[in-house]
Amino acid sequence: MIAIDRRLTKNFDWLTFAIIIALALIGISTIYSATRPPAGVGEHSDFYLKQILWLTISIAALFVVVFFDYRWFYKFAYPLYGIGLMLLTIVLFAGRTSLGARRWLNIGPLSFQPSEFFRMMFIIAFSAYLVNRGEELKGRLPASAIFVFALFPMILVIKQPDLGTAILLSALFVSLSLAKGISRRIMTAILVIGLVSIPFFGNIAWDGLKDYQKNRLIAFIDPEVDPAGIGYHIAQSKISIGSGGLTGKGYLKGTQGPLRFLPEKHTDFIFAVFAEEWGFSGSIFLVGIYLTLFLRGIDTAMKAKDEYGRLLATGVTSMFFVYFTVNIGMTLGMTPVVGVPLPFMSYGGTSLLSNFIAAGILISVRTRRFELFYP
C-alpha cells in the first residue's frame, strides 16, 4: 500500500482545486443547457455525460501529479519534450482530419489532440532549459534555443493548422523568457523584427491557411462583410451575449444555443451561452473566479521554493490567462476566431485532462513551497 505523506494533505492547495472544480461544474451545466433539444423535442445530446466522465478521469490525474514531486518533471524534461515534438510530427502524416484541420491521433477507440498536451511539455522543458543554462544566458537567448523552443514547434502546430496553440506557444515563450530575466530589449527587438517581417511573410502565411481560417480573419477585421456567412459566428455570439442583459434569461432559458443559431456552442463559444443565461452580472462573477485563479497562480510563483517551480507556476498561469483572454475576446469579436477553448469549461476531454494536469503541477509547486519538503 502506498503511504500518503501527511504534509501533502496539510499543505494541499484546496483553493486552487476548488476553483477549477467550480469552473468545470459550471462548464458541464452550461454544456447541458447549450446542447439540450429545442422545445424539449428530440433526444438530449450526451456531451455533458462525456464531460462528467472526463472530469472524473481528470481529477484522478491531478492527484497523481500532485503526489509526485514537481521536480520529477525537471529530470525528464527533455525526453518529454522530444516525445511531444514526435507526436506533433506524426500528426502531420497520420493524424485524423476534422473540419479541415489535421490535429488528432487515434489509438484504438480513443482520440486525442497532441497539441493540448504539448503545451505542458513545452512549459516543463523550456523552464528546465532556462534553469540549466542559468547565468550562461546573461540576459540573452542563443539562436538554437529560439529555434528549438519557438520556431520549430510553432511550424509543426501551424501546419496542422492550429493557430490558437501557435499563439499560446508564442506567449509562453515570451512570458517565461521575461520571467527568467531575458533582456526586454532583446524580446522587443524580436517582436519588432517579427512585425517588420509581416509584409514579406504575410503572403506566404496567408497562402498556407485554410479557407475557413482566412474567412475568420476577414470576419474579425470586418464582421459586417458577410453577416450570414463568414461573419456569422461573431455576429451570433454578440447577439447571445447582448440578449442576456444585466441578469440573463435564466438557466435553461437561453435560445441561441438550443435553437442552433450559435455554432460551436458547447466548445469555443460556451461563454456566449453562459452570458445569455446569466447576463452581465453572472459574467462578471465568472470572470472573478478566473481572476482569483490567475492571482493564486501568480502568488504560487512568487512563493515557490526554487526557480524551476517559479517558472512552472508562471508558465501554467500564463497558459490559463492567454486561453481565457483569447476565448473571451473571440466571443466578443475582439480577437479572431482561432479555435481556443475556455479553460475548464469548454467541452473536450483532451483539453480538460491537460488543464487538470497543468493545475496539478501548479498545486504541487505550492504544496511543496516549504523547506520541510526538501532533503
Describe the structure.
It is a single chain. By secondary structure, the chain is mostly helical. The chain has one domain (6-373). It is built from 15 helices and three strands. The chain has helices at 6-11, 14-34, 47-67, 71-75, 77-94, 114-133, 143-158, 163-180, 184-196, 198-208, 211-221, 232-243, 270-303, 307-332, 349-367, and strands at 96-98, 101-107, 110-112. Strands 1-2-3 form a three-stranded antiparallel beta sheet. A hairpin with a 2-residue loop joins strand 1 and strand 2 (101-107). Helix 13 runs antiparallel to helix 14 (307-332). 42% of the residues are buried.
Low-confidence region ranges: 196-204
Largest sheet, spatial ordering of strands = 1-2-3
Strand content: under 5%
How many independent structural domains? 1
Average residue pLDDT:
82
Given helix and strand content, the structural type is mainly alpha
The run of helices and strands is HHHHHEEEHHHHHHHHHH
Helix residue percentage: 55-70%
The rough form would be described as globular
